[in-house]
Amino acid sequence: MWEWLENRLLDGGQNGKVVHHAIGGNAEIFYKEVATNPQFNACRESIDFLVGEIRKIEAKLAEYLKEGLPMQMIHGDLHYDNVMVVGDDVSGLLDFEFCAYDWRAMELAVALSRYVSEDEPLPLVERFVSGYCQKGVLTESEIAAIPDLINLRIFSNAVYFTGRAIAGEDTLESLTSRAGAYAKRVRWVNANRDALANCIRTKMAALVAA
Questions:
Q1: What are the tens digits of pLDDT across the range 184-210?
Q2: Are 161 and 175 in contact (CB under 8 A)?
Q3: Range with the largest mean pLDDT of 44-53, 111-120, 123-132
Q4: Are 196 and 147 in contact (CB under 8 A)?
Q5: Per-residue model confidence as pLDDT tens digits over 56-107
Q6: CB contact at 8 A, 148 and 116
Q7: Contact between residue 172 and residue 37 where contact means Cβ atoms under 8 Å apart
Q8: Which of 12, 56, 59, 183 is deepest in the core (most CB within 10 A)?
Q9: pLDDT digits over 106-117, tens only?
Q10: How many angstroms from the chain centroid is the CA of residue 210?
Q11: What residues have CB less than 8 Å from 98, skipping those under 6 apart?
């Protein structure tokens, strides 16, 4: 995870919500801050869960880096808050500050990371994936990685807000107030890994067949 974060530092060390210059790719700064800062006690159960999941994902992401998942320029924050519509048609996109040369599959993963926070995520995921598959294509390796990449987006937010607090740019409440919601998202993704991957496979196969 930390190599991925470090590789995405731009313009002197900050790439939006991907990472923060106060932490960069140094895992120990983040882990020490979470373990020793008493302000995290306000969300201790949730933040400890997130840290445990971050540690678990490190080995997986190292494998994805070795595997060489397809790369391309991505918007990096393509969820419904950043999409303008007129009627049923998309009329524009907003917020290009997170554009980066990244794993192609991260574009879909970032978008889905917002939907998994809803009360009933799967129908929303299915609808978004249906639209994505009209133009987007993923390999089987990318599809299998999507649940981890959704979680990666959530984890990078936790690292980013921790870095902002360390640098004195924000209070830690920006994270402690969100940690419970982040943990809920990750738990949902972990419990629905097969459903997420199968949804993407099914939608892509249907379009190919058509």
A1: 999 999 999 999 999 999 998 887 666
A2: yes
A3: 44-53
A4: yes
A5: 998 888 888 888 899 999 988 888 888 899 998 889 989 887 788 889 999 9
A6: no
A7: yes
A8: 183
A9: 999 999 999 998
A10: 31
A11: 15, 16, 17, 18, 75, 76, 77
Return the closest-CA partner of residue 56 out of 143, 186, 176.
Answer: 186
Residue with tokens 């991907």: 18
Q: Left (φ > 0), alpha (ψ -120 to 50) or beta: where does 16 sit? A: left
- The token pair at 169 is 């740019």
CB contact at 8 A, 43 and 180: yes
Q: Write the single-letter amino acid at 200.
A: I
Tokens representing residue 36 in the block: 């020793």
Give the integer Cα–Cα distance in Å for 37 and 17.
Answer: 21
Three-state SS for 199? Answer: helix
In angstroms, rounded to a whole number, what is the distance separating the alpha carbons of residues 92 and 81? 11
pLDDT value at position 10?
42
* DSSP H or E run through 72: strand 71-74
Give the residue among 154, 141, 160, 137 at the shortest CA–CA distance from 190.
154
**How far is Cα 129 from Cα 26, in angstroms, rounded to an integer?**
34
Residues paired with 72 in a beta bridge: 102
Residue 89: helix, strand or coil by DSSP? strand
121/69 Cα distance (integer angstroms): 26
Tokens of 46: 């949730």
Cα→Cα distances 78→81, 102, 108, 112, Å? 8, 14, 8, 9
The token pair that represents 124 in the structure block = 């929303």
